[in-house]
Amino acid sequence: MDRAEAECAIRRLMNDYCYLIDAGDIEGFAALFEHGSWSVVGEPAGPAVGATEVAERLKAVILYDGGVPHTKHCMSNLEINVENETRATARSYITVMQAVPPELPLQAIFVGRYDDLFECVDGTWRFVSRNIQGDLVGELRFHRSDLA
User: Fold this and answer.
1) Which H, E and C letters describe the chain, residue by residue?
2) Where do the domains of the chain lie?
3) What class is the 3-147 domain?
4) pTM of the full predicted structure?
5) Please, are residues 24 and 8 in contact by the beta-carbon 8 Å criterion?
6) Is the pLDDT of residue 148 over 90?
7) In what order do the strands lie in the sheet with 71-84?
8) Tens of pLDDT, residues 49-63
């Protein structure tokens, strides 16, 4: 796999992360971390390691009619650095928008960044870690039951 193909595969993985959580597919989202860790910087529990722990952490995500959280995760300023054929890093900004009419009008509820590490095993890129740094945090009580 050349560098361009690796970048495309990693970008697809990063996008799947956003599409899966916004679709309310908690199991599919958690499966992205079967061989990796997922963490929010400063969260007392530390990183969730593996799909089972990630799914457990996401039990607090509120799913509305249709089984979706009414969010859109929008990545920007995406930078992927393929170091070699088996290792890559990425960083990006993340803005999470949410609307739960009529209680919560459309607004940004979280703005921060993702710092990612990836590995390629048997030709398939996967997450080793995703660290989420929150820079601006808004109204989260409609997104997570543990913050309501």
Assistant:
1) CCHHHHHHHHHHHHHHHHHHHHCCCHHHHHHCCCCCEEEECCCCCCCEEHHHHHHHHHHHECCECCCECCEEEEEEEEEEEEEECCEEEEEEEEEEEEEECCCEEEEEEEEEEEEEEEEEECCEEEEEEEEEEEEEECCCCCCEHHHC
2) 3-147
3) alpha beta
4) 0.94
5) no
6) no
7) 48-49, 37-40, 124-137, 104-121, 87-100, 71-84
8) 999 999 999 999 999
